[in-house]
């Protein structure tokens, strides 16, 4: 057990929404940036934690895409929230599961005494890279952000009970944005290659790989941790797609055991898991002592499981 | 002390070089990608470690810029080195000091028993983003990669003795590539805005901020760790620029105590520190028992210090 506690949480989604088949999707529509959303969610998390930025000793950005190629996202968030202070800022990235990976890693540093209060921020603005011609992804994604203040605790029952990360790179090109990095530079952009600079999701291929790998992963995690899914109070999965119930049924997880908010929120990329976790805390649906299993699939294909006792 | 050891190391720079004022700069010249260089350095590190990829249990990419916006660099490296295996892959980014930040973080996870052998790879291809019109940066940067296998050790004298990271975001825009992320999308690229998509360094401004902040940081580190710079065998600084001797003299560090290879290698961005560290190991200039202080400044402005006992 790595003893940490959630000291503050905040989420943010743009006011502007779109509707597809009766489902709500948040879209910034040019009025807000990925950075704006990150900062708003972070300020809410600080307010709930009743902390000033002076009490935070590390800022971690855990988003899928970058705001600028240089510097890292966390430095830009630092500039908005902590300019003039010298707390460290760095990015941790495993695409859609970046938040879970960051929480997983930082729990070691907090437990070891390196940091006392860490601000982890996930913010993604999918709408900047969606391709209208790819209906499945265009109608699925939302813009959003969520932030958490994670703190050291003396309560020995609180913290990360266990966690696991696996990357299956046979799925490395099933979810991607090919253009904009060094392999296909932004400066080589031509209108006719637009699709290469947009989000490209091979839905069926990821679904089939996830459906194959997740049951193995859950088994491995149950053996490793000695805790079965039935002993968990709630599962917060990445809101990957409408196929969530299919995947959960493949895992033998009953509907009352997991949270499906795809209709309400869509897939918010890296913000998806922390956004739902934040909503559950705001609604009082989860409380101290509960065992929450964060579970996600990400481009890579990377899968994360992290069991948190609140 | 977080007990880890260097089990393997490898570096790679493109064959093609350019010369400016008698100084050598490596430039891939379109024949190699950031990913190619990462993979070559990683294979060398595995060979020196006498390990197969099967013995590695985590791949961390610690580069400044991304190869593709999605997925993360580590997933693409995983695909080249570890396809069909399911070891985790994630990116850690603090721009030029990404390697030091990654080593710092992963030392906690290794010491805590999460991973036994971690492959950390830094690869950057500055030439993809340099602006010929900005002579100072154009003539300074090189392309290069370096990789390390970091392993758990039972030797209680080996490992990370102490480390510190500080971000001074008043320097957030002193070193940047503004375009290509979500704030200035690749899809909005116009030839007349090219400079916004290129590397932009305000050399004087960073130098003055570094010269002000680094002495404070060194003092803080000496107090925190209880180890003074005079007790360190060698300092491996980020090869930031020709001003390295100026900065070192400001810190009161004599020339024989630090490594300056700016003439030979240029500034290799995130690969800079691990490339020099690798060169020193290859040359037998550092050996088991030596105390090596890694020291870097990065866009952000982020400063890292990490004291390693080999």
TrEMBL record, chains A, B:
- Cite a single GO MF annotation: 3-oxoacyl-[acyl-carrier-protein] synthase activity
Instruction: Give the domain of life.
Output: Bacteria
Q: Which residues form the Beta-ketoacyl-[acyl-carrier-protein] synthase III C-terminal domain?
A: 223-309
Pfam families assigned to the protein according to its UniProt record, in alphabetical order: ACP_syn_III, ACP_syn_III_C
A GO BP term, please? fatty acid biosynthetic process
Q: Which residue ranges does the record assign to the Beta-ketoacyl-[acyl-carrier-protein] synthase III N-terminal domain?
A: 90-167
Which PANTHER family is this protein grouped with? 3-OXOACYL-[ACYL-CARRIER-PROTEIN] SYNTHASE 3 (PTHR34069), BETA-KETOACYL-[ACYL-CARRIER-PROTEIN] SYNTHASE III (PTHR34069:SF2)
What protein am I looking at? 3-oxoacyl-[acyl-carrier-protein] synthase 3
Q: Which source organism does the UniProt entry give?
A: Stomatobaculum longum
The organism's lineage is: Bacteria, Bacillati, Bacillota, Clostridia, Lachnospirales
